[in-house]
Every structure is written in C-alpha cells, then in structure tokens.
Amino acid sequence: MSVFTSEQWKAIRKELNHNPEDYGVPRRVYGSAVVGSFNIRKLGSVTKRNRNTWHFLADMCRHFDLLAIQEVMNDTGGLRHLVSLMGDQFDLIVSDTTGAFPDKKGLDERLAYIYNRNLFQLRGVITDVTWDRTQVLQTLVENFPAFAQAIQPVAGKKGVSAGEIRKIKMPTFLAFIRTPFAAEFEVFGHPRAERFPFMAINAHLNFGKFISDREQEFDALLKWMIGKVREEETVHARNILLLGDLNLNYDSPERDHPVLVEKLRALNNKVGRKVNVCAPFLDPHPQSMQLMAKTGGAFRTNARLSETFDQIAILSRDERLGSLSTNQMGRDPRGPDFGVIDFVNLFAKAVMGKASADSLSKEEKKEFFKKFEHKVSDHMPLWFRFRLPDEPEGQVSLAP
C-alpha cells in the first residue's frame, strides 16, 4: 500500500507550521480547555504505522486537553506509543475490548481517553454505559412478536455465525454493538475558582446495514444521558460531555438537520430549562470562513469529506460554562468554539499542490486517499473549546 514519502511529510509539516489555523488547528489560549474526539483507524500495533505517521498523529493529539479515541485495537502498543510521543503531561485510560465476546470473532475494539494532567484530573467513576437485565427483559417482553419475527430465519440453528447475527434487523434497541465508555473528570480553573466535575462519554455507535439500527443506538444513548442528568443528586453527571463516532446519518444536512434538531428539542424538554444542551456540529459555524458551500455550511469529519459521523454534545448544569448556543461560537478567544482539524485538505495542498481535495480528479482522489486513509485515519479530529472556571466573583450566568 502506498504511503507518503519522507519528502512529502516534510512538505506537510512545512505547510502546517506556516498556516495551522487555516486547517482548523485550535490555538492554545490561556483560560480555556480543548476537548475532542478522534477515530484513529485500527489503532493497534506500533509496527502498523511508520515513524513519520506516529509523530504526525502525536502532533495532532497534543492540541487537546481531553481526547476521546475510538477504534483502539486489542493490542494497545500503538496507543501507548502515541501518548509517550505527546509529552509527560498526558495520561491515558482505556477500556476493555467491546463488540465481541472474549475469544470469539467480532467487531471488538477499545475506547480510550488521553488527558492533560495540568488541566484535567480523573475522578472516581469509570463505567460502561449499559442497559441492565431488567430493562433488556422489559424491552423483549414488550416487543416479543417483533423480535420473534426478526430472528426467525436463524431461530433454533446451531453455530450461528457473528456475521449472520449482524444481519438481523433489530425491531428496537436492545443493547449497544460496542459499549460506550464513561469516565468522570474534574476541570481545573483559576487557582481560586472551585473546580467542576463532568462525565465524559466516549462512544463508537453502530454503523451496520440498517439506518434504523444507527438511530436506535443514538436514541438509546440520549435516553441514558437524560436519565443521568436528571439525577440531580449525582454530582458527576451534572455536566455530561458526549464525544465520539456516532455514525449519524448526516450526509445531507438539508434533509437530516431538522430530524436531529427535533431530537435535541425533545431532549431539552425532558431535562428542563436548568440544563444547557448543545450539539454544535449539527449547525454551521457562525464565524468560520473554511466551510464548504456544498455541505450547507456543516463541518465534515470523515476523510472523504462526505459525512459528519463524529459529534460532540454537551449537557451542562454548571452556570460557569455560560451559554453554549451555536451563535455564541467563536466570539471569545477563550470559547466556546468548535472545529475540525482538516488534515485532508492539508495533505492535498502540501502533497498534491491543490487548493483542496475537492479539486482533485477522480483518479487523483483514488491514489490520494490510499496514502493516508489506513495509515493516518479515515476520520479527522474534531474539537470543542470552553472557558475554564473564573474566580467566584467572575462567574458567568447560564442564559435562561
């Protein structure tokens, strides 16, 4: 498989160092923190990527204070190597494999968080996001005829393969194909400001054969988040940050945007006015000049620049975060703000001499994507910036 040459990597670094903000790289701004999500394709053994690629990935990841990583393989050597290249201030937590039963074939992978210990502290709660047995049985009881019909082609058959199972169209949500991974963090602020806790949820939801399967998993995760944020006595869930490859059907923003916005409206109604709900990547960035007209102003997060699979969503009760409405994005250097590190157009400019990947011919694109989709990734990192807590007298009130 073709990869970038050493000379091409030099050209990439030169272009990136000269124009980092042209490619969506978030600046370091005192008084703010940058969180993000990055699906790094099949992040496994160190030997699967060369030195230049590892250093490029480390440079990308170093811009984040908290980064959720998806598609970590069973071999965590590459992940640990990546963190070691980022610097001593970064630490790591990683889940067990999910997506397959131990010692059986499946879609098994791990989910990980890389975090900057100078701004974030890991607290006590680390958990999977699951439905308990009572909830699963209740779903089966209430939808038994539909489940019986769905599994009828393989019912009673011995030795059913994982592939056959994955072809079953689920009538309703029962369990996640890969269990989301949640961890409680605490964010530092001004030395005299009270820290605030939040729960991060790292998710790689089902892509699958059926759009309905994707929608069911997304809706189930929203339902779990609603339940948590409404438990007001649960301190760690007062603020929830969802980071991940949600595989949302968002290839046509004009068609898909109203559907997802309606889900968020319903979410707002259920959690009440005390909770600020924001999913910035569903809307155009109000300040950015980089957006592509053909997407209706929406960021794309996959390497082919055709989908917004990856998302960040914030459910906040903490008044110090202020209003997180999309029209506030980019107005203050400290945040809130959001964006995508667009390494695809960086590569197109540095390696191909083109203004953007869109200007490549069909044949050029075919060879171009071969050079990085597997060895770098087929997803780009996305980020969200927020203000760190001020002193108590400088707190920002949450807009009603």
Under the CATH scheme, the architecture is 4-Layer Sandwich
Biggest sheet statistics: 6 strands, mixed
Strand arrangement, largest sheet? 3-4-2-1-12-11
Q: Which structural category fits the helices and strands? A: alpha+beta
The proportion of residues in beta strands is 15-25%
Helix content: 25-40%
CATH overall fold name: Deoxyribonuclease I, Chain A
CATH superfamily: Endonuclease/exonuclease/phosphatase
- Count of helical stretches: 10
| Ends distance | 54 Å
Level-1 CATH class name:
Alpha Beta
Shape: globular
Q: Average pLDDT, to the nearest integer?
A: 87
What are the secondary-structure elements, in order, as H or E?
HEHEHEEEHHHEEHEHEEEHHE
Rg on CA atoms, Å = 21 Å
Number of domains: 1
- Oligomer class: single chain
Poorly predicted tracts of residues: 289-294, 394-400
- Tally of DSSP β-strands: 12
